[in-house]
Amino acid sequence: MGSINCARPPEQVLIDAIAGGTTFFQYREKGTGALTGSAAVELARQLQSICRAQGVPFIVNDDLELALQLDADGVHIGQEDAPAALIRQQLGPDKIVGVSAHSLAEAKQAIADGADYLGIGPVYPTRSKADAEPVRGTAIIEQIRAAGITLPLVGIGGIDARNAAPVLQAGADGVAVISAIAGALDSRLAAAELAALFAGDNISE
Ligand SMILES: Cc1ncc(COP(=O)(O)OP(=O)(O)O)c(N)n1
Ligand SMILES: Cc1ncsc1CCOP(=O)(O)O
Ligand SMILES: [Mg+2]
C-alpha cells in the first residue's frame, strides 16, 4: 500500500489498519499517479515511523535501494524484479525477503534463492495491478502446499473479508490486500473483519 489506492490519507489508512489488526505492511508506491523521488521517500519514512511505533514490519516493494536507505525490515520482489538471490545477498540474513510466485516451479526457485515468504496470486481478479498475471484461483495455493512447501504463503489479488476464507482453507497463512483496506471508508473495520478470519471469529455475523 502506498498513496494511490487510498480513500483517505495513507498515514491515516495505515494507523487505522493497524488498529484493526493488520500485522505486516508493504510500501508499494507505483502505478499511474504514484509519488516519485523525494515525495515517495518522505511518505515511506512517515509510514515506516508508524509501523515502528506499532511494532509492525515495514517492507519495501521492488526498491532495494530505498529499503537500504531506510533500513527497512525487508523487500518484496516479483518475477520481473531483481533476482531474489541478489536481494537476499544485499540485505543479509536478518532482513525479510518476500517473493511473488505464480507456479510451483517459481515457488521452489524462490525458496532456493532465500525467500522468507511467498506472495501467491492473483487469487481473484484485481483492479490494483494493471500488469497482473492471469487469475490463479485458490488452486495454486493448494498445489504448492500439496508439494510439501512449508514456507509462509500469502494469498494476494482481489481478496477481502467476504472471499478470504477459501484462501486460508487452501493453505495460505495470510492474505495481502490493497483495495479491501486502503479503498475502504473505514479501514479499521475492514482490517478487523479480515483479522477476525484468523481468529476463527467472523465479526460480521
Ligand atoms: C505479498 C505480495 N505478493 C505479491 C506481490 C506482487 O509483486 P510483483 O509481482 O513484483 O508486482 P508489484 O507489486 O511489484 O507490482 C506483492 N507486491 N506483494
Ligand atoms: C500487487 C498485486 N500482485 C498481485 S495482485 C496485486 C494487487 C492486489 O490488490 P487488491 O487487493 O486491491 O486486489
Ligand atoms: Mg515487483
From TrEMBL:
GO molecular function terms attached to this record: magnesium ion binding; thiamine-phosphate diphosphorylase activity
Catalytic function, reaction form: 2-(2-carboxy-4-methylthiazol-5-yl)ethyl phosphate + 4-amino-2-methyl-5-(diphosphooxymethyl)pyrimidine + 2 H(+) = thiamine phosphate + CO2 + diphosphate; 2-[(2R,5Z)-2-carboxy-4-methylthiazol-5(2H)-ylidene]ethyl phosphate + 4-amino-2-methyl-5-(diphosphooxymethyl)pyrimidine + 2 H(+) = thiamine phosphate + CO2 + diphosphate; 4-methyl-5-(2-phosphooxyethyl)-thiazole + 4-amino-2-methyl-5-(diphosphooxymethyl)pyrimidine + H(+) = thiamine phosphate + diphosphate
Binding, 4-amino-2-methyl-5-(diphosphooxymethyl)pyrimidine: 26-30, 61, 100, 129
Classification via InterPro entries: Aldolase_TIM, ThiamineP_synth_sf, ThiamineP_synth_TenI, TMP_synthase
GO cellular component: cytoplasm
Cofactor (UniProt): Mg(2+)
Residues engaged in binding Mg(2+): 62, 81
Domain of life: Bacteria
TM annotation in the entry: none
Annotated keywords: Magnesium, Metal-binding, Thiamine biosynthesis, Transferase
Any one Gene Ontology BP term: thiamine biosynthetic process
Pathway assignment: Cofactor biosynthesis; thiamine diphosphate biosynthesis; thiamine phosphate from 4-amino-2-methyl-5-diphosphomethylpyrimidine and 4-methyl-5-(2-phosphoethyl)-thiazole: step 1/1
EC number(s) on file: 2.5.1.3
Sequence ranges assigned to domain Thiamine phosphate synthase/TenI in this UniProt record: 7-181
Binding site for 2-[(2R,5Z)-2-carboxy-4-methylthiazol-5(2H)-ylidene]ethyl phosphate: 126-128, 158, 178-179
Signal peptide: none
UniProt KW Transferase keyword: yes
CDD domains attached to this UniProt entry: TMP_TenI
Function of the protein: Condenses 4-methyl-5-(beta-hydroxyethyl)thiazole monophosphate (THZ-P) and 2-methyl-4-amino-5-hydroxymethyl pyrimidine pyrophosphate (HMP-PP) to form thiamine monophosphate (TMP).
Family of the protein in this entry: Belongs to the thiamine-phosphate synthase family.
Protein name, UniProt field: Thiamine-phosphate synthase
Organism: Paenibacillus bovis
Lineage of producing organism: Bacteria, Bacillati, Bacillota, Bacilli, Bacillales
